[in-house]
Write a structure and sequence with these properties.
Strand 14 and strand 15 form a beta hairpin. Helix content is 30%, strand content 20%. The protein has a 6-stranded mixed sheet with strand order 1-4-3-2-8-20. It is of the alpha/beta class.
Length: 870
């Protein structure tokens, strides 16, 4: 029986204008929502008729059903259909026919409804291959909630019957096919995607993009077979699908088949009523979404505009807005199809937008490819390289939400800045983002929302915008771009973005550094008395601690300065998730003697520590308790090791290859240079961590161009690069100088690092620091080599002072009984182990026990060196 929402008679008397919507999918829902939100006077009554016995739902997110989402989770806003007195919703009853002359719609159950305007939003249906066996048990399409529910039920039942995981085949390697393959894999089905053309997503990707996608799909354990046409499906004795035969003559076993070979417009009602339908399918509409009958509109996948019927929801939404606007008496036209698509498959990031295949005459393309990382990016530009026409993003589609709104407009920046290796905040801010451009993908905050927060809500800083819009409230990686947008909007209004460090200091970090340096003050209390207000906070205290350390004002745990440190610096170790600490001795350049290895191994064994070789060519030891740190470090210091500063905002590592000492390709001694650099800059406190790399030849085995300062050997000397980093927004370092000798290289790095320490913002890496610098890398070269600011003697002196004054923090701590008193788990029981620590064994080493493992003492490691919970 059909279900109908109720509408009051009082509401019915407001107006006799009645629109009937045939179909209750996403596009129909959007149409009703748009019409009613802009029609407060109630000029239109609305009746929505849907054949599915459920509310409209998000069909685009069907794959999430296999990740635990329920039908209710996928449901679109219900209030527009259930609570609006001007809307009547009939569900579970398909329209059988409509009479154009009588302007009346009749459902299969016999319900007859008159209309003034009819809106066809019947969508499309999933096509199946017309091959023998296409209707066998175990063959499915992937279109509706009923389809996916039936698929999951079959897989669950059939896998029990066979007593093993099923083998599955998805026929069709387009967007929907890959999502279906991911869904099958989520049901523990070993899946193969069969594509008749020579590449996946052939409508959206070029050959190189498709090749990259294939590697990503196969790396997930999903097999891919391209250039294969299925000719027959074979049954078993009970009528279940058992295998497929291909045109090439080979055969593949399968237990379940999903067809994703395209969709066809559901235009049968229109055909039967004599409304013009395109020979290739779809109800023909004009730019106003009107059909050959002026009383009938068509929207979504059933509509054919300009000879095309497209199975994407975005154009359907655009049509829904046009249709609603027309009914409300305003002019609106459908701009044409936006074929932009984004693959929704965990672990596989793919997007395509605009003229992705560069079919526009004279189009140019800019490409970035990293086959090892599985990344392929392409931007298609106009023949003058200024206007964005389209793009392909495979392996990293993080820029999709930002680039798509720029279609048809100028990029406003070097196209390569959007691709290598990731979109930079600087490039985006300079591109004058349109309001609809996505800035914070975590919370779906657009550039327009941020601008409105400044102009309409009165937000004058990033914190205010964050509180108002939630931009940057999740991962925080968008905050640099948010800051730039806020600053730009404030500048337009005549205001400026505050550079104050915090509420206690009106100075920026760079200004405060100069104030402390010139005044010579050496304690936080003296500095805040002279330059600030209040008692300080968790922002300004660590910043002042770093500045004082940079200027050589004693040990980090000396006197008042000890109270300024954060948790890691406070105990000179990195705290871990379970409350224990890691111990990281310095291994300069990754070079270590066998005797050193034996010491580290024996310490780790005696204290039961988990050991791991890091990407920075060091050995981390995890699981040390607070009261164990001095004893561990005493043994390491006695063996000649010193602090690796893994806990500080300072130099971390200088990575190197083996260079000319051993490698047949090496042209210079990269290890020797790396050791020299690490010993020179060890303990150098800075606004953020610093990493260096030295490669002995152009093969770049030390990955120097991913470091804050990178050094690459050539026959002519050392090439120096600056401004690289990993993290949320990886950056390649840019070439700074070529052919430097050893002395010239050290001098250049000295000056760059000291200038960075003095002028960078709080927690600012070298890459954004360089981007924010007026004049960029050229300006930095002028400072370092041409002394454009007249400060190079001061920079050189500052580094010389650091080198001369360096002492190992842990060695000094071990010699000071007062400092050692800090290393106790409990004040009244300094040698007692923290009873909350518990460990279990994995791959022969101790790791923190999970909550469930803690409840089972049999899996915990017992002993005197590891605390266990009893």
């Amino acid at each position: 029986m059909p279900r109908t929402s109720k509408r009051t008679d009082a509401a019915a008397s407001v107006s006799d204008a009645h629109v009937v919507v045939v179909g209750a999918g996403m596009v129909a829902h959007r149409f009703v929502e748009s019409l009613r939100s802009r029609d407060p006077e109630g000029r239109w009554r609305v009746t929505v008729i849907g054949e599915e016995d459920r509310h409209p739902y998000d069909r685009v997110s069907l794959t999430s059903y296999f990740a635990g989402a329920s039908a209710d989770d996928l449901a679109l806003q219900r209030s527009i259909l259930d609570e609006d007195d001007r809307v009547r919703f009939i569900r579970g009853d398909a329209v059988a026919r409509f009479d154009r002359e009588a302007r009346r719609v009749t459902t299969e159950s016999g319900v007859s409804t008159a209309y003034d305007t009819l809106v066809l939003a019947t969508g499309s249906y999933a096509a199946k291959l017309t091959v023998d066996g296409f209707d066998l048990t175990g063959c499915f399409v992937y279109r509706t909630l009923d389809d996916v529910e039936a698929l999951r039920t079959f897989v669950d039942r059939r896998s029990v019957e066979l007593g093993r995981p099923l083998r599955g085949t998805v026929i069709g390697g387009g967007l929907l096919g890959l999502e279906a393959a991911g869904a099958l894999q989520g049901l523990d089905v070993r899946c193969t995607v069969v594509q008749s053309s020579d590449k996946l997503m052939s409508a959206q990707l070029d050959t190189r993009g498709a090749d990259s996608l294939r590697r990503l799909i196969e790396s997930r354990g999903i097999a891919v077979r391209t250039g294969s046409v299925t000719t027959r499906l074979d049954p078993d004795v009970r009528g279940n699908v058992r295998g497929l035969e291909f045109r090439e003559g080979d055969y593949a076993d399968t237990d379940v088949v999903v067809f994703t070979v395209g969709v066809r417009p559901r235009d049968q009602l229109a055909r039967a009523a004599g409304v013009d339908v395109h020979p290739r399918g779809g109800v023909i509409i004009d730019a106003g979404c009107t059909t050959s009958d002026p009383r009938i509109l068509a929207i979504g996948e059933v509509a054919n505009f300009d000879g095309r019927a497209v199975g994407l929801v975005a154009p359907g939404y655009a049509m829904a807005e046009v249709a609603a606007t027309r009914l409300l008496g305003s002019g609106a036209t459908f701009p044409g199809y936006d074929d932009s698509t984004k693959l929704k498959l965990n672990g596989v990031d793919v997007a395509s937008f605009g003229d992705a295949l560069a079919q526009t005459p004279g189009a140019l393309d800019v490409v970035y490819a990293d086959p090892v990382a599985g990344v392929y990016k392409k931007l298609v530009l106009s023949d003058d390289a200024k206007t964005l026409l389209g793009g392909i993003l495979v392996g990293d589609a993080s820029a999709y939400g930002m680039l798509r709104p720029l279609l048809g407009g100028p990029l406003g920046a070097d196209p390569a800045a959007y691709l290598m290796p990731e979109v930079t905040g600087d490039a985006l801010a300079n591109a004058e983002l349109p309001d609809e451009a996505l800035v914070c993908s975590c919370n779906s905050v657009t550039a327009g929302t941020i601008r409105c927060a400044v102009t309409d809500e009165g937000c004058t800083d990033v914190a205010g915008v964050k509180a108002c819009t939630r931009a940057g409230a999740a991962c925080g990686s968008c905050l640099p771009l948010v800051k730039k947008l806020v600053g730009t909007e404030l500048a337009r209004s005549g205001a400026t973005l505050s550079t104050a460090l915090c509420e206690h200091f009106t100075h920026s970090r760079a200004q405060l550094f100069d104030a402390v340096r010139v005044s010579g003050l050496g304690t936080f209390s003296a500095i805040i008395d002279r330059f600030g207000t209040g008692r300080g906070c968790d922002i300004c205290k660590p910043v002042l601690a770093s500045i004082l350390s940079s200027l050589g004002h004693g040990h980090v745990l000396d006197g008042e300065n000890a109270t300024l440190q954060d948790t890691n610096d406070h105990v000179m170790a990195n705290i871990q998730k379970d409350g224990s600490y890691s111990v990281v001795p310095r291994i300069a350049g990754g070079e270590i003697t066998p005797e050193g290895l034996l010491v580290i191994g024996q310490v780790a064994k005696d204290f039961g520590l988990y050991t791991k070789i890091t990407g920075g060519q060091r050995i981390d030891m995890f699981g040390a308790r607070l009261e164990q740190l001095p004893e561990i470090w005493k043994r390491l210091v006695d063996a000649g090791f010193e602090s690796g500063h893994a806990y500080g905002k300072s130099l971390r590592t200088v990575k190197s290859c083996v260079g000319s000492t051993w490698c047949r390709y090496g042209v210079q001694d990269s290890v020797g240079m790396a050791v020299q650099l690490e010993l020179r800059y060890r303990g150098l406190r800075s606004p953020h961590k610093i990493k260096l790399g030295v490669s002995g030849c152009a093969r770049e085995c030390a990955e120097a161009r991913g470091k804050d300062v990178g050094v690459i050997a050539t026959e002519a000397g050392w090439n120096m690069y600056v401004g690289g980093n990993g993290g949320f927004t990886p950056r390649h370092a840019v070439l700074f100088a070529e052919g430097l000798d050893d002395a010239g290289l050290l001098q250049a790095i000295d000056r760059v690092l000291v200038y960075y320490i003095r002028t960078a913002d709080r927690l600012q890496r070298t890459a954004p620091w360089l981007e924010d610098m007026g004049g960029g890398v050229e300006a930095l070269r002028a400072v370092v080599f041409d002394d454009s600011l007249g400060i190079v003697e001061d920079l050189d002196a500052a580094m010389a002072q650091h080198v001369d004054a360096y002492e190992d923090e842990w060695k000094a701590t071990l010699a000071d009984p007062e400092k050692l008193r800090r290393f106790a788990s409990f004040v009244n029981a300094p040698t007692t182990a923290d009873p909350s620590l518990a460990y279990t064994s994995e791959r022969g080493q101790a790791r923190p026990a999970t909550a469930q493992e803690r409840e089972n003492p049999r899996v915990l490691i017992a002993g005197t060196t590891l605390a266990v919970r009893r």
